[in-house]
Amino acid sequence: MADSIPSPSPTPPRSAADLFSDPLDSHPLWFKPTAFLSRDFDSESYISELRTFVPFDALRSELQSHLSALNHELIDLINRDYNDFVNLSTKLVDVDSAIVRMRAPLVELREKIEGFRGSVEASLVSLRNGLKQRSEAAAAREVLELLLDTFHVVSKVEKLIKELPTVPSDWSTGDANNNMMEKASSINNGLSLQHAEVGTNLRETQSMILERIASEMNRLKFYIAHAKVSQSLSLSLSFTHSLFIQNLPFVENMEKRIQNASQLLDASLSHCFMDGLEHRDANAIYNCLRAYAAIDNTGNAEEIFRTAIVTPMIQKIIPHDQLGVVDGASTELESDYRLIKQSIQEDCKFLLDIASAGRPTEFLRNYKTSLDFLAHLEGYCPSRSAVTRFRSEAAYVEFMKQWNLGVYFSLRFQEIAGALDFALSSTSLVPVQNQSPDGGNLTLKQSLTLLDSLRSCWKEDVLILSCSDKFLRLSLQLLARYSNWLSSGLAARKKVDAGSNPGCEWAASAVPDDFIYIIHDIDLLAQEVRGDYLRHILQLLSSCSAEICDSVKDSILHGGNSLSDMIPQVISTIIEALAEKAAESLLDGERAAAYMNAEVKSKLISGAATEITGRYYELASELVNVARKTESSLQRIRQGAQRRAGASSEISDNNVSDPDKICMQLFLDIQEYGRNLASLGVEAADIPSYCSLWQCVAPQDRQNTIKRSLDVPEPVLKETETNSSPCDLDA
């Protein structure tokens, strides 16, 4: 194979000039042949540019060499395509006439293309004009829709103001109404309560309508501000310039109506707020405060509260005509301060309870209502950036700071975790008395409390989604607390002083049956945590990302698995308890025998043997009778099948039947049992139930040989006879 490969041809020797000199076709760096191919090539400028740094002789020689190279290339090309050059003259016949014939269609085609180009440009101009008019029309339509919305909102505000419930007289006649109600109460208490209820409903209805009006006024302010922005953006449009040049006359014409509605709202809201403060109507006050917040006029609410509550209270406690306050006795000043504190407690503190976390249920209801109100306001924001700016406002931030979610969670933590700690601090396992449908068939109070605590973390009236991470941590802590309670109790049970460990007393007093209940509850709790409980949490957190949901799922499953991991420890504890119980019974029997004489001991042994033998006979006889009845039924079925098949019914089965096997096994057992009784000093043949048992299971040839059989050990049976096993007895 090596011979078939041709050897490379030797390379010709290279001279020193080829190695150390420039190639023959190389040019100096200043000479570029490609420059001659440029469209804007100018020979004079080219030569004048090169002569500034290249000698004339060198330039001439280089150009001549390049010319000779081009001539050589031309000759090579002609020689390569010589036939084509020779035939070129014969093929180029009547070239001028062909050019004339082609010129006319080309000119016509050029004219058509120019015509199409002009029409396309005209269409483009028309399209641009149409788009411009369309954008102007869209801007004008937006302004018109804005004006229509403004008109509708103003009309709606005026309609709502007219729908305000009226009172018997002016808003400020609260004292007269109170006097009338006091007189009515002296006549009829039931009628007075009815009037009071009507007044409360009237104030609440007024406050709710005023809150709606305030919301619409806030919407109206938004439209007006948006109109000003639209005006500044539309000044460059020729179509809408005339519409906005006079500063939205349509809005200017409605300014008077808007001002009247705003004044009526301020007056009505002030009177309703004062009336609510006077009657301490929390719902009316809360609605009025939300209305003030909607129109961004909280200063007016503060001024009304200062005028209606604070000023009269201070004037009542410290009159202006009272002199010598500074120079008077210190007890008078202390009395004044005490009265001020009392007035604040009675008349002002209920306002602070709105945002106070001291009452978690009311706090959560008010917090969710406030968030719903803020979400309603955010609905008017046209974009996400507007929502971000709205949330970054100082008023928004200050309002959210009033809701102390940390304190709320701390109170809920104490409430939920405290209930579980109280249940686990019991010194014994408490069974569930009245099982509720939500209890899941739990048997112990401690387990039921854990399930209730876990569910409380994710109830609608407890959970705040912004604190869901804290409630998840609380759920896992509850599971860990329950597992630690079990493990510490089981570990303390193994110690001698188990009852001395706080929180582990239940394990010292628990019996094996109690641990069975614990296993049952652990199974149910683990299934609930990994099942419905996990699905409920994932449903509440469905708005979160998939990564967060997976982390929550893994943590909950880990908590459920930690409960299941406690079952082997509980089973081990049950086994140890049973073993200890058996050992205690054995020791007690040995100690009791030391205090009994032979006669008493003989009576106890004889009586116990008689009772045990009687029960032994009942169980064995029932087992044998059932086996014989079953065998008889099977025998009849087999005989019927043989007759239908035409076989002889006289053919008998030589195999040992199941009842015979059972009797053989029982016969061996009672013989050994009789010998054990004899070793204790009890004569088995003297026990009637033993004789009956012998007659039941003994073979026909051994029916009357009880004493002899007990004296002589039974020989080993043949393989055919000992073919039965304890499994046959169980069958």
TrEMBL record:
Conserved oligomeric Golgi complex subunit 2 N-terminal domain location? 29-103
What Gene Ontology cellular-component terms does the record carry? Golgi membrane; Golgi transport complex
Give the GO biological process terms.
Golgi organization; intra-Golgi vesicle-mediated transport; protein transport
Q: How does it sit in the membrane?
A: Peripheral membrane protein
Occurrences of domain COG complex component COG2 C-terminal (ranges):
401-586, 592-670
What keywords were assigned to this record? Golgi apparatus, Membrane, Protein transport, Transport
Kindly report the protein's main subcellular placement as a broad class. Answer: Golgi
Q: Which domain of life is it from?
A: Eukaryota
Q: Where is the signal peptide?
A: none
**Which Pfam families does this entry report, sorted A to Z?**
COG2_C (PF12022), COG2_N (PF06148)
Q: Does the keyword Transcription apply?
A: no
What family is this protein classified in? Answer: Belongs to the COG2 family.
What PANTHER family does the database record attribute to this sequence? CONSERVED OLIGOMERIC GOLGI COMPLEX COMPONENT 2, CONSERVED OLIGOMERIC GOLGI COMPLEX SUBUNIT 2
* Name of the protein: Conserved oligomeric Golgi complex subunit 2
